[in-house]
Amino acid sequence: MVEGKISPIHGWAAMKAEGPVEPWSYVPRPLGPNDVEIQIQFCGICGSDLHTIDSGWGPTTYPAIVGHEIIGKVITKGEKVSNLDIGQTVGVGAQVFACLQKDCKACSIDMDPHCPKGVFTYNAKYSDGENAQGGYAEAVRVDANYVIPIPSNIEPQYAASLMCAGVTVFTPMIHNGVKKGDRVGVVGIGGLGHLALQYARALGCEVTAFSSSDNKKEECFKLGATRFINIKKEDDLAKAEKSLDHLFITSNARSNDYTQFSRWMDLRGKICLLALPENKIELNPGSLILGSVYFGGSLIGGINDLKSALEFASKHNIKPVIEKLPMEKVNEGIQRVRDGKVRYRVVLEN
Ligand SMILES: NC(=O)c1ccc[n+]([C@@H]2O[C@H](COP(=O)([O-])OP(=O)(O)OC[C@H]3O[C@@H](n4cnc5c(N)ncnc54)[C@H](OP(=O)(O)O)[C@@H]3O)[C@@H](O)[C@H]2O)c1
Ligand SMILES: [Zn+2]
Ligand SMILES: [Zn+2]
């Protein structure tokens, strides 16, 4: 670990849509009194990184260093930061700033990802006009409120994927009232999905994995699924009819038929969209109304959700399945995600 500041910060940046990431460096913003600089040890590759590299959600500001499942050690802190120590192992997720004021509707109810002044970890601008840059890099400088201590029984490389994928699936489970005995479905068993199986099982649910990949079946059972349904097989799908209380959609396959999801829900079942497809989705409204089914979505999780997701993982031994790669092989990792080959999260290591 180095102590002090790293400048310029070397990283791997997307330069144009769908291109490879390339070595690039930037001079970070001045370290403010509430800021922390972290020397990055690990960073997961999230599906959102690819949407951003590709300008899939609208034009990305290039060069863009993506990556928001960051784990590292505190190497410098501003004079007002008292709750973090130099050398401490910490994580940063998909958000690096919010106002956290009582008169902010979102912040006052622990929904800080929706703060109007919020800044995401990459492809976002700070109020001073600087671009936020993410975790495919040697270091990152962020607001101390978004620097989360990692429980000591979670090894750093396994903590990375909890910072986005983990909190994103756990938060709506808690806020949508998922409880022991509920029948929970998870569509798409990737980075988010394989953690959703584990969190739902640890909450005491009956868990169905809906996947397009038959070769994930055995692993799904090990991860906590009690039933596996191949989303491409009609006779398999018939078994899903009215069989769920909650459904979490983490697959953004273009061919997903959203109307079929409502058919899987029992009365007043809740569907929660977590994947953010680049295209519009089609959904027959009658399919919701005739079963009194709710359809909604959820955005990452706030600071307190992050702490809860880590604490719950630490208590229930929730552990991402990862493929570690050296940071220099980041393009290989991205390609493995594009090809759907990853089991279940690539974690880059410096
Ligand atoms: N709501 C939020 O705040 C939030 C936070 C993080 C990520 N996300 C979004 O959630 C989605 C999933 O992220 P992730 O990191 O879990 O991705 P991932 O690791 O690539 O997993 C996606 C899974 O979806 C299924 N899939 C089937 N066809 C696909 C296709 N054509 N393209 C992509 N996936 C396909 C695959 O599972 P099977 O083989 O089992 O079918 C795949 O493993 C992304 O859209 C991401 O942007 C949203
Ligand atoms: Zn993410
Ligand atoms: Zn706010």
UniProtKB/TrEMBL annotation:
Belongs to the zinc-containing alcohol dehydrogenase family. Signal peptide: none annotated. PANTHER family: ALDEHYDE REDUCTASE (PTHR42683). Its cofactor is Zn(2+). It comes from Mycoemilia scoparia. One of its GO terms (molecular function) is oxidoreductase activity, acting on the CH-OH group of donors, NAD or NADP as acceptor. The keyword Oxidoreductase applies. Keywords: Metal-binding, Oxidoreductase, Zinc. The lineage of its organism: Eukaryota, Fungi, Fungi incertae sedis, Zoopagomycota, Kickxellomycotina. Residues 19-348 form the Enoyl reductase (ER) domain. Pfam families: ADH_N (PF08240), ADH_zinc_N (PF00107). This is Enoyl reductase (ER) domain-containing protein. InterPro entries: ADH-like_C, ADH-like_N, ADH_Zn_CS, CAD-like, D-isomer_DH_CS1, ER, GroES-like_sf, NAD(P)-bd_dom_sf.
